[in-house]
Design a protein that fits this description.
about 240 residues; alpha/beta; Rossmann fold; about 45% helix
Length: about 240
């Protein structure tokens, strides 16, 4: 059974995730940095460094899936691409992101578009790199979403996924479990006023097929030469995959 934010509703996971992010969008950036102690910024920087190393040549066109307010897209500017498309199912998150891009003067390079990760309104083989941070666990059907990401990646291109994962070693596994199930929902509820959003987060992380399990699905979607890089005792992970030229 799919993990969803609002258990009392019979709408699809996709609809509930969009509703949740619309609800928390004004406070999303603040909560991200507070709840992670700012380490989410370092994780994004590391993921882009790994993309730089994995790419055969500097990517000119980048697609940022589940872009939210665009933080990962902004970090990808260090690669000096010609164009970044940021796509998300939440218009609330995109609205915050568009304002952010205009304020930073990069809205001509980073374009924020409404779209579903599992049915991308984009042509085949269009992007040198596809990236996603903290978004794939929200897919209604993980394999379907990853397969569509593979479709829009050009031959020879690379895909980089940054996602939460479950620490495996004592005592960090136990400490993180206590924090994510007890402290995180309290802070999230107090700041965002959405009691379900930050209960959903640890539940979705717990249910997500991380590590080697994710790589198997990644490869089933078509990606080759895959790699898993755990971060911060396994709290997050970077996954790299390639599309054969």
């Amino acid at each position: 059974m799919a993990v969803v934010p609002y258990k009392d509703k019979d709408t699809s996971k996709r609809e509930q995730v969009a509703e949740m992010f619309d609800s928390i969008s004004p406070k999303y950036d603040l909560l991200n940095h507070v709840l992670s102690g700012g380490i989410d910024i370092l994780w994004r920087k590391r993921a882009i460094r790994e993309l730089r190393k994995a790419a055969a040549s500097p990517p000119k066109r980048i697609l940022d899936i589940a872009t939210g307010t665009g933080d990962f897209a902004l970090e990808a500017l260090t690669l000096k691409p010609e164009k970044i498309i940021g796509m998300d199912i939440s218009e609330g998150m995109l609205s915050v992101g568009r304002d952010k891009m205009k304020k930073r003067g990069v809205d001509q390079i980073i374009e924020m578009r409404l779209g579903d990760s599992e049915g991308l309104p984009l042509p085949d083989n269009d992007f040198d790199a596809v990236i996603v941070a903290f978004g794939v666990r929200n897919f209604e059907t993980l394999l379907k979403g990853l397969t569509d990401m593979y479709r829009v990646t050009r031959p020879g291109g690379v895909c980089v996924v940054l996602e939460f994962s479950n620490p495996r070693q004592f005592p960090f596994k136990q400490l993180y479990s206590f924090y994510s199930r007890t402290i995180l929902p309290l802070i999230g509820r107090a700041v965002s006023k959405d009691s379900s959003a930050y209960t959903y987060l640890p539940e979705s992380v717990q249910a997500f097929p991380d590590g080697p399990d994710f790589l198997r699905i990644y490869e089933k979607a078509g990606f080759t030469n895959t790699k898993w890089i755990p971060l911060t005792f396994g709290v997050a992970s970077i996954y790299i995959g390639h599309k054969l030229a």
